[in-house]
């Protein structure tokens, strides 16, 4: 086999995201279908208002949570397949040179769907373990008749079986598209050696800058040319758009879920707040670790050469990892805005007719606490991977 189940062990990120998405959707969709069975038993206006609010909540949560996490799973799946092809392109090129059709090779990539199956299955089963407590908290004030937990096979199909088949088919089709590359394009090493300026010659001079005659100096632009570190920083962001998305998404999840969980104690329940906090932290750490570790691994040759030419460990980290700090700040800001708008919609629109619902206002102390903890966690991760950068040597790269 070209791809084995062992090769998909790195799909932990996809499994985690799929697990969180299916767990949340299973809880709310199952509750939505079960609560509709008691619609004919409602009589008082208060019961009808609360019933409509619960139905609307289930729809909004499933639409936003399921849609966002599904899109992220697709991006992560395509990224993992591309990364696998890039690291095994020589083996794939040899097989293609021996006459193996691209579709036959692509069919082996169906195993990338196992990460989705593992995550959706665990999320579906975990949701039923939490369901008794979830149902009890959703009707903790006994405003509705008792809601009995039911098993709906269609949920198993749409949340476990269908996503697994769809993602496996997507993996095969995407691989087939990526393998439409000439054999020589797969066999040759696309890593091009760059000219790394040393300290003795000055790092502030780009390798593309030519020395002009004195008579031509008046025509030289006044703008200072980009240094090698500036160029490397820009290229890192431009050529790794998927990693930019992961860091943005990880920061987004941390900001939105940590702040939203603090509001759940008054708006919903402690259990809902804990569940949001755990899901947000798991998603944030998974995507951030995946993105930062991939950046370091993908630039090991560059780091080794930079260290050889006299660049310090701090300069390497600033060029390769520091460029993602503005992205993480943007993700945190978007996550803060998202959780505020979502909760405002839930309180002002969905529960506007519910008298006991408290007024929701933006919680600045919680925001600053979340921001402080995020900065501490993010910088700790940067420090951890900066230590790893310091251990990369030229000898290690040459032996590969």
Approximately how much helix is present in the residues? over 70%
Structural class: mainly alpha
Query: How would a textbook summarize the main sheet?
Result: none
How many runs of DSSP E, i.e. beta strands?
A: 0
Mean pLDDT: 76
Q: Compute the gyration radius: what is it?
A: 26 Å
**Termini gap:** 24 Å
Strand content: under 5%
Number of contiguous helices: 15
Give unreliable regions as ranges.
Answer: 190-220
Query: Could you give the order of the helices and strands?
Result: HHHHHHHHHHHHHHH
Morphology: flat
Brief write-up:
This protein has 400 residues and is mainly α.
What would your notes on this structure say?
The protein has 400 residues and is mostly helical. It is built from 15 helices and no strands. The chain has helices at residues 12-35, 45-87, 89-97, 102-107, 113-138, 153-178, 183-187, 228-239, 241-267, 270-298, 300-308, 313-320, 325-350, 364-390, 394-398. Helix 9 runs antiparallel to helix 10 (270-298).
Features:
single chain; 400 residues; mainly alpha; 70% helix
Give the helix/strand layout.
Layout lengths: L11 H24 L9 H43 L1 H9 L4 H6 L5 H26 L14 H26 L4 H5 L40 H12 L1 H27 L2 H29 L1 H9 L4 H8 L4 H26 L13 H27 L3 H5 L2
Helix pairs in contact: 1-2, 1-5, 1-10, 2-6, 5-6, 8-12, 9-10, 9-13, 9-14, 10-14, 12-14
